[in-house]
Amino acid sequence: MSPTKMGLRQELRQVLAPEMLQLLKLLQLPTLELQQLVRQELEINPLLEEILEEPSSDMQKETEEREEHNEPSPELDRIDWRDYMQEGVDDRYLKNLEPTEEPEGPIIAQKDTFQDYLLFQLRTSAADPQATAIGEYLIGNLSDDGYLTTTLEEVAQALDQDIGAVERALAEVQKLDPPGVCCRDLRECLLIQLGILGQEESLAARIVSGHLDDLVHQRYPVIARALGVLESQVLQARELISSLSPKPGASFTSDQSQYVYPDLVIEKRDGEYLVRTNDQAVPRVRLTTGYRQILSQSRKSSPQDREYVVKRLEAARFIVRMIEQRRRTMSRIMQAIIQRQTEFLDKGIRYLKPLTMKLIAQDIEMHESTVSRAVHNKYVITPNGMLPVKYFFGVGLKSDSGEDSAKSIKDTIAEMIRQEISQKPLSDQEIADKLSRQGITIARRTVAKYREELKILPTKYRREKR
Asked: Which residues form the domain of 429?
């Protein structure tokens, strides 16, 4: 066993000051969360006050004279510091924020979930309590697309019910809106929708029942020969089938609606783009008038009270200083983005240039991580609509003009496909060749990747026969 050794080691390490760490946290907050944070600090900090209106010159002069002569304000005489004493209150302004009882600003009401919508229908329509109980269990096992994710045998075993009762409950749930809900596969889903339309004996139903795979792969002659009909009739039935919903639950979402509040606004005045921070909802704050008298009064108090006053003063100064610092930082970043993306603002997405946060950081002489925090979860109103600030950033591909943004190339690909002949759609290689003739160097697999991100089908599924 080797003996333990002690020694000294010298190293250079960069450590952020606590105030800088707090600034970075504040910089990352969207405007509405910043508003909530400032409101909370106003409630707990007697040394911070909201500026509701510009003070008159007489009032300002009187306040300054009182501070100069250390004359306490009449309101300050009635302050009992122990009313403000709370354990751990000194760092609450950087903790997770709880929603206020009366939130300000527009609110979007929470929508009912897909399951809520089905349960309401089931409970108001089903007369059999047993079928209702089983139906509730089935609804609880639906995917977001509306399909049943468990077998009927598993449901019967879990609820200790016979399979017949489960099948009857399934039939009740499948009668609910949207049509095709609670099915076990695509074939059953489409057949139920056709039945609701009165097409259960139609050619479309026969195709779905026995030739769904051929239909997906566009093998129309095979279907026509098997069913003894004309290919034109198969194409007509295909139109009916394509009007059905393969994902009945897709029109619903379980996510809560979220209100997006713009943090920045870009306006064009006299041919020049200007940036302003959209933080009018954030209370304007300042140190309480007469805070010097509060400090003077605290000297006669207990050490615990004096310590509290000092901490509150530090917190108040931090809030006032850092709100302004946050405003300046966000404005500088957005101005630097505008300088590099002016053509996009003027002409649209085709002119969006590749841009990295490192370039913006170099432009404004800040660290890249600061830029990343500042644009995190922020939105800006532009002439092209409201966009996430991160929308302006992205990689690019080489072209004759230098580099083109991936977003602008995606838009070009989408436009090519919109204008293609439906009987002869463009392949990924043909799109790559057309882009190459426009001076954009791109591989076929990159075209395929962008097409998939745009949720555009491959060539064989876009081809329509005459």
From this structure: 396-462
DSSP 75-144: HHHT--GGGG--TTGGGGGGSPPPPPSS--S--PPPPPPHHHHHHHHHHHH---HHHHHHHHHHHTTB-T
Verify that 229 and 345 share a domain, yes or no. no
The first and second tokens of residue 151, run together, are: 């077998």
Read off the pLDDT of residues 53-69 as tens digits, 9 standing for 90 and up. Answer: 655 555 455 444 444 44
375 and 405 belong to one structural domain: no
Burial of 101 (0-12, 13-18, 19+ CB in 10 A): exposed
CATH number at residue 456: 1.10.10.60
Whether 345 and 434 share a structural domain: no
Return the SS3 of 164.
Answer: helix
With respect to residue 47, please indicate whether it lies within any of the assigned structural domains: no
Question: What are the pLDDT digits (tens) for 295-349?
Answer: 666 666 677 777 777 788 888 888 888 888 888 999 999 999 999 999 888 888 8
Q: d(Cα 28, Cα 109) in Å, to the nearest integer?
A: 26
Residue 382 domain flag = yes
119 and 244 in a single domain? The answer is: yes
Q: Does 244 lie in the same domain as 169?
A: yes
Strands (E) across 288-393 are located at: 379-382, 385-388
- Assess contact for 47 and 309: CB atoms under 8 A: yes
> Among 153, 214, 212, which residue's Cα sits nearest to residue 185?
212
Please indicate, yes or no, whether residues 119 and 200 belong to a single structural domain of this protein: yes
H-helix or E-strand containing 404?
strand 402-405
Q: In what order do the strands lie in the sheet with 379-382?
A: 272-277, 264-269, 379-382, 385-388
The full length of the chain comes to 466
Helices (H), ranges, 341-395: 342-347, 357-364, 368-375
The total number of structural domains in the chain stands at 3
CA separation for the pair 407, 354 (Å, rounded): 9
Domain identity same for 353 and 230: no
